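Protocol step 4 of 6: structure prediction from sequence.
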Amino acid sequence: MKNEVMTRDVAINQIEQILEYFEVESIDTAVKEKLVISCQLGRIYRDGDSIVYTLKNPVKLANDDTIDRLMFKEVTANDMRSLDKYPRDADNARSIVMISITTCQPLEVINRLSLTDTTMAGFITGIFG
């Protein structure tokens, strides 16, 4: 794999350690594979109680700052209440809000993520529940 920073076996081990740390009992095989590939590229790792994801396409802000990584944290029950105002069938909106909550980034930033980064952020958010 081009730009690989670790072997597949090491990446699998790291993803399994992340899943074990956050007590994930099962995960879709295709999602796990995407996580492993990103980990092989050095774009996903655990930092204490958080998961860090380096964006494939950094977001440039109006003030010329650039966000090049997202740090995901486990949510609280209170955080989950933020989703109550969205109907259950509004999956896309709920996912975007959940990414915003788990990363502590405003919706304005999350809405500017590329589709690839939004998809990976959704996969990582799914680790937390």
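Step 5 (inspection) to follow. The longest strand covers residues 50-60.
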